[in-house]
Amino acid sequence: MTFNAMDYVETILTDDSFASKYKAEENSLGHDGAERLGQLRNMVKSMLDFAAKAQIQFERNVDHLANAMLTSSDSSSPYYYNPSDVTASTIGNTGASDMKTGLSDLGLSYKGTSILYLSGTSLRHYFKIEDEEKFNKIKTVKFNNKTVSYSTKGEEIYFELTDIHAADLDKLMALSFGKTEYAFSVLDYVKACLKSTKVSDSTKALVKATYCYNKDAKTYFDR
Questions:
Q1: Rounded to two decimals, what is the model's pTM?
Q2: Is 50 exceeded by the pLDDT of residue 130?
Q3: Residue of 170, 148, 169, 168 lying closest to 159 (CA atoms)
């Protein structure tokens, strides 16, 4: 007998036996079982849509999109998914740092930020070393309190934070050069993409799905 991820998704969305057991377990923990089941199902649907948008963006297995089952126009159907539109103003002010400020004292210039959608979401900041002497005086670099070293890409260097959980995509992750700290979240990258006129429609669809997945994951995990 084989059992894959989509079988489990189907179980979460439609299996009455699973639903009864899940609600009973959540009720026993002092939660509202029906509400918790709804939150789980919402998260699963946004996860499927997020995965599908990534498939399209990176042209992977596009004949079998992860969200293919979510086609119902009936809001009472387990296969209904119709998230509200996401804009830069939806995200609002996250409190992110100006990544360009104060870098001359570190011998660096800021070149940009990217998100990597691999098995887990990664946040990567790019810089160029402008003054080797100043840069070499930096004793410790930490990313989200973890000591990191840089990697080289062309004439630039980058620092990367890997495996950011879905519920943490809105959280500010600090990149610290000694006492100098810069805060930035995955949703800051999402916001920048949505504001840009140079970003493709498929990229914007992916970052919108990223926001929705984060929102539903936060609701489910941040009790």
A1: 0.93
A2: yes
A3: 148
